[in-house]
Design a protein that fits this description.
Length: 265
C-alpha cells in the first residue's frame, strides 16, 4: 500500500527531513559529476550535458526545499501533540490535524508512520504503521458526539484482508457502539476511544500542557501565586474568583455569582 500520488516535492516533504538533503545533494553530484564522467567520449554528450547541468540545480533546490518543508511539518506535529490538554481541544481540531496528531502519537511510540492521504474526512486508510516487521492500517475518526458504528469496523477489517496487513487500529475522539466492540472482539482490530487516545498522548507528550492556572490567594498583605483549584464560596458553594477593592486596591476572593451572592474570603 503506497502513498497517494503526489508531486516530487510533496513526497519529499512527507519523508524525514534528512531524506530531502540526501536527495538534493545526491542528485546534484550525480548529474553534475557522475553523468559527465559516464558520457565521456559519447557523441551525444554535448547535447545532453547542458540539460543535465540544469537538472542538477533543480534536484538540489527541490531536495533542500522538501527537507525544509519536512522539518517544519515535523515541528508542527510535535507542537500539535504537546499542546493538547484534553478531549475538548482534540475535538476542536480539523480532521487533517487530527490525523497528524494521531500519527505523531504513534511515531513517539516507535512506529514508522506513513500518512497515506487516502482517507480524507470520510474515512479509509489514513495511516500505515510499521514496527518490528509488522504493518498496521489506521483509520482516524474525529467523532466526539457520534459513536463509531459497526459498519466502519467491518470496512477496516475488509481492508486488513485486502492489503494483507497484520492488524488495524481505529482511533476516535469519542466511543464505539456495542456492536462495533463485539465485532472487533477476538480479531486483530484495536478500537481506540477518546479516553484511551488522550491517555496515550499524555504518555508521550514531551512537555505536557499545564493545567488551568490557579488563582491568587491572600496571605496577610502579599499575594502568592499557587497551582491549586479555587475554593468554593462559603455562602453558596460556587467557585470564587480574584477581585480588587476599588478604594484600596487590596486583593480578595469574591463569589463568581456576585452580585447575587456576596460571599468573600
Amino acid at each position: 500500500m503506497g502513498r497517494a500520488k503526489g508531486n516530487l516535492l510533496d513526497n519529499l516533504a512527507a519523508l524525514p527531513w534528512p531524506a530531502g538533503i540526501v536527495f538534493g545533494i545526491g542528485g546534484f553530484v550525480a548529474l553534475r559529476l557522475g553523468l559527465p564522467a559516464l558520457l565521456r567520449g559519447n557523441p551525444f554528450a554535448p547535447a545532453v550535458l547542458p540539460m543535465a547541468m540544469l537538472m542538477s540545480w533543480f534536484a538540489l533546490v527541490v531536495g533542500l526545499l522538501g527537507a525544509t518543508m519536512s522539518w517544519f511539518g515535523q515541528r508542527h506535529r510535535r507542537r500539535l501533540l504537546d499542546a493538547q490538554q484534553g478531549l475538548d481541544s482534540i475535538a476542536a481540531l480539523g480532521w487533517r490535524h487530527f490525523e497528524q496528531l494521531v500519527g505523531e502519537a504513534f511515531r513517539r511510540q516507535g512506529y514508522t508512520v506513513e500518512e497515506t492521504g487516502l482517507g480524507g474526512a470520510d474515512g479509509g486508510i489514513d495511516l500505515i504503521l510499521r514496527k518490528d516487521g509488522r504493518r498496521v492500517l489506521v483509520q482516524c475518526k474525529q467523532w466526539r458526539r457520534r459513536q463509531i458504528p459497526v459498519n466502519v469496523v467491518r470496512e477496516m477489517y475488509g481492508l486488513l484482508a485486502h492489503h494483507r496487513a497484520d492488524a488495524v487500529k481505529i482511533a476516535c475522539a469519542g466511543s464505539y457502539t456495542r456492536d462495533a466492540e463485539k465485532f472487533a472482539d477476538g480479531k486483530p482490530i484495536e478500537l481506540i476511544g477518546g479516553e484511551e487516545l488522550l491517555r496515550m498522548m499524555r504518555e508521550v507528550q514531551t512537555s505536557p500542557p499545564r493545567t488551568m492556572r490557579a488563582f491568587e490567594v491572600v496571605e496577610s498583605t502579599s499575594i502568592a501565586s499557587t497551582l491549586i483549584a479555587p475554593p468554593d464560596c462559603p455562602k453558596c458553594g460556587k467557585p470564587m474568583v480574584e477581585r480588587s477593592n476599588r478604594t484600596t486596591g487590596q486583593k480578595f476572593l469574591g463569589c463568581s455569582m456576585f452580585p447575587v451572592c456576596r460571599g468573600v474570603r
